[in-house]
């Protein structure tokens, strides 16, 4: 028996057996349905966060809100911040759903954001909006995409914006990135069609040209820009879990990666200075180390599936496709434990082994309302019901009816630890939220009760 217990303890205590996350998840309910934009108005200063929510825009800092704009004609769907006129002053662009898609432009005057005009681009709302100088004329140009996947580029000229490029109306643009791929000071537009296409638009002699294109195998799920090395690298991950990478080298675009990884999620994001994040509907959020021909998981948060992630001063902010927001914060490994809505954290000793939990049997019985005693075996009594448990047998006797357990009771330093498999015989079940490290005991009366 001692040898078996020792093996279990080694599995429990060895570091690296479980790739647990150093973060816990905190719900940010005040941001539900919002659009959050990270901006740096002052160089080398911490970023600020502009939030569009319903018909308002506000500044979010240290958990406090400062109202910037209110009573907009529609729900905010996208935000952009940058120098649109080329005069060194930043404009705030607000895309709204007013039954179609309208963009309002605002400038700050004496501490107040005042409207300076509006325009329409699509018949449906906009979900991507960025300001860039795409032709190096000193004016800010716009890259826009609608919820239906139509993309358009608008160039500034004489305080007006003119449509200059449109995506194929028969295709859905599902990813857009604006990045200078070759270091010439003029950013390119990298875009993908969901059906399996990636192309690069580049400004050349007063027009946009297709500098490069490729047709990866499968539907495009993710487009990731890695800002490492002399020139950035761009990756595509497809529905076939094929990873393709390219970058600028020796005055041309060359392949940098090509491998298959079935464990990759369907949404990948890269944060400069942090690394690669993978969201999977099956496994949750994984933080990855990208290698030349593979990706290694460093930690994982099960059950957390997002549509976007941004870095905060502490931790990360994640949103899902329903508009819910979650903050990842550094946290300890302690589980918050509840019996229904009564917290018992610190009163019940818990051991976590992979997906299984083991609970101090004596403490567990008392917290769930049983009288507990220990003679030649452990006895739990509640009302007319009586359970008898021997650690060595892997059997529980329920009202003198012996029933085998799926996982035996462990005896560690003379203290019995029962797995979750015992709970149905006590009339209880557990609800486990690994992302928030919360475990709740709920009544679940079985046929024997």
Brief summary:
With 449 residues, the chain is mainly beta. 5% of the residues lie in helices and 54% in strands.
What is the fold's blueprint, element by element?
Elements: H1 2-13, E1 23-27, E2 35-39, E3 48-53, E4 56-61, E5 64-69, E6 75-82, E7 91-97, E8 102-109, E9 112-120, E10 126-132, E11 141-146, E12 151-157, E13 160-166, E14 173-179, E15 188-193, E16 197-203, E17 208-214, E18 220-226, E19 233-238, E20 242-249, E21 252-260, E22 267-271, E23 275-280, E24 284-290, E25 295-301, E26 308-311, E27 316-319, E28 325-330, E29 336-339, E30 342-343, E31 350-353, E32 356-360, H2 361-367, E33 371-374, E34 378-382, E35 385-390, E36 395-398, E37 401-404, E38 410-412, E39 415-419, H3 423-426, E40 428-433, E41 438-443
Parallel strand pairs: 29-41
Antiparallel strand pairs: 1-28, 2-3, 3-4, 4-5, 6-7, 7-8, 8-9, 10-11, 11-12, 12-13, 14-15, 15-16, 16-17, 18-19, 19-20, 20-21, 22-23, 23-24, 24-25, 26-27, 27-28, 29-30, 31-32, 32-39, 33-34, 34-35, 35-36, 36-37, 38-39, 40-41
Structural class: mainly beta
Percent of residues in β-strands:
over 45%
- Unreliable spans: 1-18
Please give the alpha-carbon distance between the first and last residues.
33 Å
Question: What characteristic shape results from the CA principal axes?
Answer: elongated
Indicate the radius of gyration in whole angstroms.
28 Å
Strand arrangement, largest sheet? Answer: 33-34-35-36-37
Q: Report the biggest beta sheet as strand number plus sense, adding barrel if it closes.
A: 5 strands, antiparallel
What is the tally of helical segments? 3
